Amino acid sequence: MRVIVALGGNALLKRGDRPDADTQIANVNIAVKTLAKLAEEHELIITHGNGPQVGMLALESAADTNLTRAYSFDTLGAETQGMIGYWMLQALQNALPGRQVMALVTQTLVSAVDPAFENPTKFVGQVYEQAEAEKLARENDWVVRQDGQYWRRVVPSPAPQRVVETRLIRKAVRDGVVVVCAGGGGIPVVRDAQGRLSGVEAVIDKDLTASMLAEALDCDAFLILTDVPRVMKDFGTPQQSEIGHTTPYELRSIDFPAGSMGPKVEAVCRFVETTGDMAAIGKLDQAVEILKGKAGTIITPSATWPLISTL
Ligand SMILES: Nc1ncnc2c1ncn2[C@@H]1O[C@H](COP(=O)(O)OP(=O)(O)O)[C@@H](O)[C@H]1O
Ligand SMILES: NC(=O)OP(=O)(O)O
């Protein structure tokens, strides 16, 4: 089977953790224990988040008095792909001796006139109390929004249209390479009338890019691995209940929060609706069981659809 996994930002940096490299490398090694098991059985493509990391690098760049202008978010996104890609590459190579692994810096095409540029929604960096976030917004010309009980900086998050390096990724996967790519949703780029690429100030949602890439690479299954065992109905209320096997139709009838579960649900629904194949959302350490339909929230076109693992 060909499987694509989108690894949540929480897997790399738990809420409240300091963003030290050692902490993130330790978390990558934990994640790779599970990912290596998938790679032993399947062709594997891995994407990852970068929200906390890209926000941290933006702060560092803005504080650098040697710079005329702080680095833009496309360049910062590339930095996060290099940094997280390197950690994953090394951990995967150590866990899968003899297997070819590569971590790619990849770009994702977006539309220059995407309305998202006028309405920033993507959370980046650390959380703040409301008063501090609003002060920082005034001082630094940021937009900030509420994220759960805290506040965070937000930046534009245009819709992904195509991973520029899709053909190269497909070729590597066919050759048996475990590919880490499209980290942070990919470096956001636009094409001009001459076909030339250039970067834009944005951070793309990694789950939406992973969904599009899953389709473009003809993946049999799309897994979003995060820190909850299943998607919940009535999340955060006394009536909350876990959703097991479900359909895009059912998921689309439920409201999910924009900054967290919303894009994940949209990403899995799009993949299942377009391809008829299986997607799932669940906990990182249950990835093997999720792929067998024995854990997580499993999404297929209908409730009686046979799982690919049983075909
Ligand atoms: N309906 C829901 N079911 C389960 N989790 C939900 C739901 N709504 C919001 N969440 C939150 O979504 C979080 C996962 O989203 P997010 O933090 O963006 O993940 P990641 O960084 O791993 O991609 C969970 O930790 C949970 O707090
Ligand atoms: N780019 C992105 O979606 O990152 P997170 O998953 O960390 O928010």
UniProtKB/TrEMBL annotation:
Entry GO MF terms: carbamate kinase activity
CDD domains: AAK_CK (cd04235)
Keywords noted in UniProt: Kinase, Transferase
A Gene Ontology term for the protein's cellular component: cytosol
Keyword match Kinase: yes
Start and end residues of each Aspartate/glutamate/uridylate kinase domain: 1-274
Source organism per UniProt: Nonomuraea endophytica
Identification of the protein by name: Carbamate kinase
Record-stated family: Belongs to the carbamate kinase family.
Pfam families reported in the protein's UniProt record: AA_kinase (PF00696)
UniProt entry tagged with the keyword Transmembrane helix: no
InterPro entries: AceGlu_kinase-like_sf, Asp/Glu/Uridylate_kinase, Carb_kinase
GO BP, sorted A to Z: L-arginine deiminase pathway
SUPFAM superfamilies: Carbamate kinase-like
Known catalytic reactions: hydrogencarbonate + NH4(+) + ATP = carbamoyl phosphate + ADP + H2O + H(+)
